[in-house]
Amino acid sequence: MHLIAPNKGPSTGTTYDIIVGWGMYMSVPTRRRRIAFLRQLRTQTRVGCPILLSFFPRPIGSRQYHVSVIVSNMIRRMLRQAPAEVGDWLAPFYVHHFTQDEVASELAEGGFNIDYYSTTEYGHVVGIRV
């Protein structure tokens, strides 16, 4: 076992097959940080290595997420905080809810192709390192 900072991957020089703990991926704030996390994990894997991510799915066009981000960003501007993203949610704690396109594009930018995607009971995706 290795102690690793939040939102970081291991830097051990060893290669791995990867399972990102249930719910961990959706707790990483900002698309930029999630993609950086995936890129870091990619450096520790071989071509063809699978990665499993789980998340809360977000239906395309869900109005509540758009209203929430508008209200959140009004408050965040007053507090001089970085803007929230559509899909960010604070119940019961910070998590990001994903659309299929969002998961696919983050995995692609991180260096993985989607092999399997499902939202049965919760969202989960298997990516393959390219």
Task: Summarize the model shown.
This protein has 130 residues and is an alpha/beta fold. Helices cover 30% and strands 25% of the residues. It is built from 3 helices and 6 strands.
User: Helical proportion?
Assistant: 25-40%
Q: Give the CATH level 1 class.
A: Alpha Beta
User: How many distinct beta strands?
Assistant: 6
Oligomeric status: single chain
Q: Using the coordinates shown, work out and report the CATH topology.
A: Rossmann fold
Radius of gyration, Cα only, in angstroms?
15 Å
The total of helices stands at 3
Please state the second-level CATH architecture.
Answer: 3-Layer(aba) Sandwich
Gap between N and C termini: 26 Å
Q: Give the tally of structural domains.
A: 1
Task: Report the CATH superfamily.
Answer: Vaccinia Virus protein VP39
Class inferred from helices and paired strands: alpha/beta
Name the poorly predicted regions: none
**Percent of residues in beta strands:** 15-25%
Written as H for each helix and E for each strand, in order along the chain, the element string is EHEHEEHEE
**Largest sheet properties:** 6 strands, mixed
What spatial form do the alpha-carbon principal axes imply?
Answer: globular
Overall average pLDDT = 88
